[in-house]
């Protein structure tokens, strides 16, 4: 829980000091897109892991 709060504080402090409107909103959108893609990769990896997917042909 402490790690999640630390990430939240870092996220808020990062965007607090950015002044340009376009850059600020672009970076926020990119952050959410990156988080969504990472969640998707994590979901697919865990799904393949739990459904006994063979990762190699050896």
From TrEMBL:
The keyword Membrane applies. The chain crosses the membrane at residues 29-50. Keywords: Membrane, Transmembrane, Transmembrane helix. Pfam families: DUF6747. This is Uncharacterized protein. It comes from Maribacter aquimaris. The lineage of its organism: Bacteria, Pseudomonadati, Bacteroidota, Flavobacteriia, Flavobacteriales.
